[in-house]
Amino acid sequence: ASEPRFVETSLFIARAEIGRLPFEGPRQAKVHLDEVLARFPASTAVTYLAATYHQLVGDYAEALRLYERTLELRPDHDPALLGRVINLSNLGRTRDAIDAATQLIARGEPYGVLSAYYWRARNLHALGQLADARRDVSAAKELGGSEDLLLLAGTIEYEQGDLDVAQADLAIVINA
Questions:
Q1: pLDDT tens string 51-76
Q2: Integer CA distances (angstroms), 170 to 86, 132, 138, in order
Q3: How far apart are CA 135 and CA 29, in angstroms?
């Protein structure tokens, strides 16, 4: 902190503070991120970490801007693609989120596919496209599962009248 020539250490300090954010709040993470963003604006490590910070504190518009900046620098940055999907969803940009999730799934890379199916299903469900949403939650369930996924799956299955399957998925969530 006392030696300005080593500004890159702010990246590592911010990363540590972001890791503790759920327990201790944001502390000085933004100050450190602003410092390294100003110094290293073309670093995907910096833009991605800053985007993650903004997502965690609920500033979805700024998170989206920074994920998109990361993707301008490196279009194949799968974590930033997933971040873009999540923040488009959180901003209520349903169609854009579906398109972004479809793009991530189509890449065929293992990173983020399960989450991309979940977020696409969530947005399809929001539009009332239950058959398409069900296809995506089923694909996601084949890859793994989480309480959020099973809750969404159970909700969609219930809304489609598939009560036995919905009950099975929701029972896992309730008993978890």
A1: 999 999 999 999 999 999 999 999 99
A2: 23, 20, 14
A3: 40
User: Which among 87, 84, 135, 88 has a CA at the least distance from the CA of 107?
Assistant: 84
Tell me how far apart the alpha carbons of residues 68 and 64 are, in angstroms, rounded to a whole number: 6
Under 8 Å between Cβ of 125 and 151: no
What span, in angstroms and rounded, lies between the C-alpha atoms of 115 and 102? 11
Question: pTM for the whole thing?
Answer: 0.90
CA–chain centroid gap for 46, Å, is: 17
98 exposure class (CB count in 10 Å sphere: 0-12, 13-18, 19+): buried
- Per-residue pLDDT tens over the stretch 21-47: 888 888 899 999 999 999 899 999 999
